[in-house]
Amino acid sequence: MSTKFSFESGWNSLPQKLQNEVRDKIMAALKITTLSSFYRRKHGNTEPRISEVQAIEAIFAEYNIIEGIWGGKMD
Question: What is the dihedral of CA 60, 64, 69, 72, to 10 degrees?
Fold first, then answer.
C-alpha cells in the first residue's frame, strides 16, 4: 500500500491534546461521519480530491504545520 495519500506525518506532528480537535475539523471539512472513514483517509487508503487536500492542508496550517503533512509509515 502506498502512503502518498496519507496525512499521518502531519498528524504525528500534532500534540496529542489537539488530535481530537483536528480530527473533528477534518471530518467536518470532508463531510466524514464515521471514525473508520477518517482513519482510512488518514492512512491513505482513500485518495483525496484536490479540494480535500486543500482543506486538510488549511487545517494543519492553523496549527503551524505547513510542511511534511503527506506520507506516513508503511504497514
Answer: -100
Q: What type of residue is 22?
A: V
What is the pTM for the complete model shown? 0.89
Side-chain half-sphere CA neighbours of 11 within 13 A: 20
> For residues 7 and 71, what is the distance between their CA atoms, to the nearest angstrom?
6
DSSP alpha helices (H): ranges in 8-70? 8-13, 16-29, 35-42, 50-61
Distance CA 68, CA 41 (A): 16
Segment 4-56, tens digit of pLDDT: 899 999 999 999 999 999 999 999 999 999 999 999 999 999 999 999 999 99
| Cell numbers linked to 50 | 484536490
Own/partner long-range contacts of 48-51 (Cβ < 8 Å, ≥24 apart): 48/5
